[in-house]
Amino acid sequence: MLRQKRETNNLSPLKQRAGAKRRLQAKHRRWLEKALAQEPDATITELAEQLSEKQQVTVSRATVCRELKELKLARKKRVSQHRSAIIENELGFGAK
Fold first, then answer.
1. CA dist., res. 68 & res. 36, Å (int)
2. What is the pLDDT of residues 49-87, one digit of tens each?
3. Are 78 and 45 in contact (CB under 8 A)?
4. 79-84 long-range contacts, CB within 8 A, separation 24+
5. Alpha helices by DSSP H, the chain
6. Which of 38, 55, 85, 86 is the most exposed, having the fewest neighbouring CB atoms within 10 Å of its CB?
7. CA 3, CA 46: separation in Å to the nearest integer?
8. What is the DSSP string of 17-31?
9. What is the pLDDT at residue 72?
């Protein structure tokens, strides 16, 4: 506070400095909404890969997850399988 008073001659609160800038812009968020409307079963990994290929923006799965949460859209973490296939995979059946 002493430095602030000395440098600005003012003790009013300083503007808050945010962290890193967002990687996804508004156009990318709109694209995410459209992509999920067309393919609602897309996983977070698939969406991240499609963003890289089609929108030329590389982001992590965590970034995609945060954006989906902010857009209040459901997220899918893994590829769909029938329940019997999941049980077989977990128990080691069906593996050749």
1. 10
2. 999 999 999 999 999 999 999 988 876 666 665 555 655
3. no
4. 79/43, 80/41
5. 2-8, 26-38, 44-55, 61-70, 83-91
6. 38
7. 50
8. PP-SPPSS-HHHHHH
9. 87
